[in-house]
Amino acid sequence: MSFTVAIDGPAAAGKGTISKGVAAHFGFAHLDTGLLYRAVGRRTLEGMEPVAAAQALTAEELGQGDLRTAEIAQAASKVAVVPEVRAALVDFQRAFARRAGGSVLDGRDIGTVICPEAEVKLFVTASAEVRAERRFLELSAKGAEVTREQVLSDVRERDARDSERSTAPMKPADDAMLLDTSDLSIEAALAQAVAVIEQKRPATP
Ligand code: DC
Question: Which residue from 10, 81, 97, 113 puts its CA 20 to 30 A from 163's CA?
Fold first, then answer.
């Protein structure tokens, strides 16, 4: 039986950490759907056309190299505006969501477009300043040469592009639970997510 948890929200709000924690807690499979757009974005930086890159994408590419760079994040946000790119990635995400044993998908449009029937929907947010600080620390720890100002401006630019695009814009589903992590520790945020899922989970999975 399938059981899907959809976790959406802007960059660096904590969805990745919460999704991984939820998957580990319940033994669900996890798909970070941002990686699909990042892999397509990386291909375009190498000169490939975005729609062709999305149509040729393989699961193996998601695990190759570092997709979590600032440059690839911007490229991902740009290819994500193209309706044909999004369309090419739908089947893979829906098939993943339906796998037996439970799944967690995190992204921007999981609760609204990819899995509108998901049993649990969370929209994880935090202020742009808090998110930029988290992303700054993450990128600096990897040795990237970035400034706080640059990261904040990148976060704002990506928020605007992701939420203002006409196809599948980032927004909470009507039935999503909002989780603002600005003033929450990761443990507290994860505990809230686990509690919400616990309530909706069938007694015998
Ligand atoms: O979650 P992330 O930062 O890895 O996502 C990178 C970009 O990919 C994001 O700015 C917009 C796009 N994206 C999307 O449009 N839809 C998704 N479900 C996931 C990511």
Answer: 97
Residue-level pLDDT at 151: 96
Which atom of ligand 1 sits closest to the CA of residue 110?
18
Q: Which two tokens stand for residue 14?
A: 């904590």
Helices (H), 48-102: 50-55, 70-79, 83-97
C-alpha to C-alpha distance for 20 and 165, rounded to whole angstroms: 27
Query: Whose CA is closest to atom 3 on ligand 1?
Result: 11
Per residue in 62-118, pLDDT tens? 999 999 998 999 999 999 999 999 999 999 999 999 999 999 999 999 999 999 999
Query: Is residue 104 lining ligand 1, measured as CB closer than 6 Å?
Result: no
165 occurs within a structural domain: yes
Distance 101 CA to ligand 1 centre (A): 25
For residue 39, being part of any structural domain is answered with yes
Q: Is residue 203 part of a domain?
A: no
Is the pTM higher than 0.85? The answer reads: yes
Residue 149's domain spans which residues? 4-198
Distance in Å, CA 77 to ligand 1 centroid? 6
Distance CA 31, CA 101 (A): 14
Tokens of 23: 């998957």
> What is the number of the ligand 1 atom nearest to the C-alpha of 37?
8
pLDDT of residue 204: 59
